[in-house]
Amino acid sequence: MSDDDRADLGGGARVEALAASSLRLDASLLDYALLAVYFVLVLGIGYMARRSVSTSLDFLLSGRSLPAWVTGLAFISANLGALELMGMTANGAQYGLATVHYYWIGAIPAMVFLGLVMMPFYYGSKVRSVPEFMRRRFGRPAHLVNALSFAVAQVLIAGINLFALSVIINVLLGWPIWLSIVIAAVVVLAYTTMGGLSAAIYNEVLQFFVIVAALAPITIIALHKIGGWEGLVAKVTASTGGANNLSTWPASDLTGIANGTLSVIGLVFGLGFVLSFGYWTTNFAEVQRAMSAKSMSAARRTPIIGAYPKALIPAIIIIPGIIGAVLVPDIAAIKAGDHSSGAEYNQVLLYLMRDLLPNGVLGVAIAGLLASFMAGVAANVSSFNTVFTYDLWQDYVRKDRPDEYYLRVGRLATVAACVIAIGTAFIAANLGGSNIMDYIQALFSFFNAPLFATFILGMFWKRMTPTAGWVGLVAGTLAAITVWLLAEPKLGIQVLDLPGQGASFIGAGAAFVVDILVSVAVSLVTKPKPDSELTGLVYSLTPKETRTHSKTGDDAGWYRSPALLGGGVLVLTILLNIFVG
User: Fold this and answer.
1) Is the pTM of this model over 0.90?
2) 442-451 average pLDDT score
């Protein structure tokens, strides 16, 4: 099959062709039994959580009653979707060790910032969502823009997770991609509709341990087969890309920027600052987990607790991708430029499962992948139903209705989100390409980067006006979309040559800068809110005592200090950068 022929095939068709030929997992009765046990546990948790749901707050925010260790593990598990497993292993195979930047530069600092700086405002103001915070700070126009863009982003990203989940079902059972997508959506819908956010969060805790149990054996067996770390270094050095695959700087292959200095600047500013802080501090799918904590201290600790496993996860996600690029012939071939097999970087984890894992262990690995993708879909769906119910339906369609009415709307929004995600899964299949990280990073540059610019400026500059809040958001989003349009080869109008994820990094930077410049300019010619309306929303106007958490009862003890925990994970990350970089 020629490159042109392959380009004419949709993403779903490519995957089906691949699954029908070489990539079929040889699962046994034992593997299926383990999967059945896992699904019984997942649905059982949803059923038990249903008994604690009596109000819309219970369904959409768990009644703000969960301990920090639960919300912390759920926080990181919600991120372990297709983006993490298929996307990051694909990145490891394609770009090598430079992928660790998504963790140690592109996650940990922002997660600590969220816990120490942002959560006191989110939790202390008692808002029910990030868009609601926008309404209080900037007014209804900015609120509506943010709520709509967030809702669109969540169903698009849910589609990515559904598509990835459908690939696993397709490979395992040979079902068509469309049927696999529908089956995957129904499973997530079942437990999320029953128990709401509590069901999603407790399942995410279970899923975290299942995911680790699934990935660790792949890393251990793959390293053993390749001859340990020394064997890995030798084989990778001799492969396509050579020692560059084991170097973290300047990461030119990852950014698509040939100049080393500019590549580092693009990486640190585009990924480490704009994309990272935009995602972790304003993405309600993550922030919602912290908002469900039972106290301010627990809410602040939630992202920081999640940062510790996040710092170590590259060992079981990126390393298998790097090994797969030299151990799996089909992946090694596409890295060398030969695409005749129809293989894609997205499938590297599946190849390793097929080639390395014995029955029984294979069942655990399959359950881990399913857990990962369901956690991602559930996070997207549970945050979508909250924003839709509180920020769109209650604020703009039906106000002042009984709480039972909004509980019913929340459940119906959950169903609607899953149905829409089925459609967006086919978008992911056709636009995702060989590496779905390219697609998802583009989405983050559209939605998260400008939102972070608006948030950070509005939180620390009281002069920023309500008009600037929504105008800056729209301008920043359009800037990122413009960069993507000019760099996307599939549209036939490519002007910017930015392979890899360079377009997303540049687009995020453009969105941030344009948003800031437009917001400042508009603020200078429009009227700001009075100081009395900004207490609790702007740093300089919020008394310190309202940003301080309790240190008694369940929040007592030096080991529960958010600042100490945050400092510890930052030191860990610096050491990892030094020794690995």
Assistant:
1) no
2) 83
